Amino acid sequence: MKNVRAGIVWVAVLAFAAAPDAGSETPSPERPLVSVQRGTIPVVLSAPHGGTLSIPGGERRTEGVMVRDVHTAEVAMLTAQFLTERLEGMPYFAIAQFSRRYVDANRGPGFRFEEAFACSVSEGHYNAYHRALRDAVDAVRDEFGGGLLIDLHGQSRRPDEIIRGTVNGKTVTAMLEEHGIAALIGPESLFGQLDA
Description:
Blueprint: H1 2-14, E1 34-37, E2 43-47, H2 72-87, E3 92-96, H3 120-144, E4 148-151, H4 173-179, H5 190-195
Parallel strand pairs: 2-3, 2-4
Antiparallel strand pairs: 1-3
Helix pairs in contact: 1-2
């Protein structure tokens, strides 16, 4: 695991300046605080909790987790750059730039929806993030028949480690059936390639 951490840290250091600029325009549901890239390879990166920006006219949430997943927005951008250079094709991405204090993009219908946002202004940014993510997944399915979704989150239980969450293999069933366990672990896996 130490080598995997070193690989991810190397990627982060390689292109830290690639983080998006929010620009001088005022964000709104029509100009959401979501960085989006249409890709050319069947990889989708999402980072729902790494943003730091306030939502003008939005209200802070009063329920649920408010803590930012530190640097996950930056790591998503850096991973996109790394994959673009390594694979000579761009991944898709949807990266929330809004603070989790305003929107928790991982809450939704059937999963503590009341914790997602506190007002309609914030809801517009929530919807923009989900629309961008849905569009990316649909485009990958349409163009490639399937792909890999990498959903980046932070965690504090083991701060020196990067943890792959697969819900006991449920989220990678198709990958394992088609490519075997070597796609998930080992030198040719995604983490092995990042480490290399």
